[in-house]
Design goal:
The chain is α+β, with helices and mostly antiparallel strands. The chain has helices spanning about 1-15, 55-75, 80-85, 90-105, and strands spanning about 35, 110, 120-125, 130-140, 145, 160-170, 175-185. A hairpin with a 5-residue loop joins strand 6 and strand 7 (about 175-185).
C-alpha cells in the first residue's frame, strides 16, 4: 500500500486538479487523506459481519481485485486499463483512472503490491446483500513509486498503513463493483 500513499498522493492531486476531489479531503502531502470519494463516507462501522455468505465473499474479492488491477496498471501508469472497469464503477473508477493519468503525466510508475486485510463491516439487506461496506488497513510499505525514465524512487513516496473504507455494490448485471472508496492518511490504522 505504499502505492496507497503514492496512489493517494497521485489520486488526491488528480482529484484536486480536476476539481473532482471530495470537499473535506486533504492531500496526503499535507498529511491529509487520499480520497476516492466524499468525506461523508462512513468512517467507522460496527462489528465486522460474517464473511461466510457468497455475496459478502464476492464483494471482498472485488475489493481486492480493484487494488490488484490498480497495482498492475500502475506498473505503466495505464489509466486506460480495462481491468479497472471490471472491479470499479462511478466515483471509484474515476478516482483510479485520474490517479493513474496524473502518475503518467508526472512520469511515475509503481512497483510491488499492496498488503490488504479487508473486512466487511456491514452488508445490507442482511438476507440478500446488495451493498457491502468494507474496512481495511492497507499497507503500502512494499508498493512504491518510481520515475519511469530511470527507475529511481520517487521523492514524494512516504509509506505506511492507512485506513481504507469502500462501498461495494451489486450492479444490474448481478456483478459486484467498488463504487466509492476513501483512503485515509498514513498512520490512520
Amino acid at each position: 500500500m505504499r502505492i496507497f500513499h503514492s496512489t493517494a498522493s497521485v489520486l488526491v492531486t488528480a482529484l484536486v486538479v480536476a476539481s473532482c476531489a471530495p470537499s473535506t479531503v486533504d492531500s496526503p502531502a499535507t498529511s491529509g487523506v487520499l480520497a476516492g470519494v466524499d468525506a461523508s463516507f462512513p468512517s467507522e462501522a460496527s462489528t465486522p459481519v460474517p464473511t461466510t455468505s457468497d455475496e459478502v465473499g464476492s464483494a471482498l474479492d472485488v475489493y481486492r481485485g480493484m487494488w490488484q488491477a490498480y497495482a498492475d496498471a500502475g506498473t505503466t501508469s495505464d489509466w486506460r486499463s480495462a481491468a479497472l472497469g471490471k472491479f470499479a464503477v462511478g466515483e471509484a473508477l474515476t478516482s483510479l483512472t485520474q490517479g493513474l493519468h496524473a502518475a503518467y503525466e508526472q512520469g511515475v510508475v509503481s512497483r510491488g503490491q499492496p498488503n490488504l486485510a479487508p473486512v466487511a463491516t456491514t452488508a445490507e439487506p442482511a438476507e440478500a446483500p446488495t451493498t457491502v461496506v468494507v474496512r481495511d488497513c492497507g499497507d503500502s510499505t512494499n508498493w512504491t513509486r518510481h520515475r519511469a525514465d530511470n527507475g529511481e524512487r520517487a521523492a514524494d513516496d512516504p509509506t505506511g498503513r492507512r485506513r481504507i473504507e469502500a462501498l461495494v455494490t451489486r450492479q444490474s448485471d448481478r456483478s459486484w463493483k467498488v463504487s466509492r472508496f476513501v483512503v485515509r492518511e498514513i498512520g490512520s490504522c
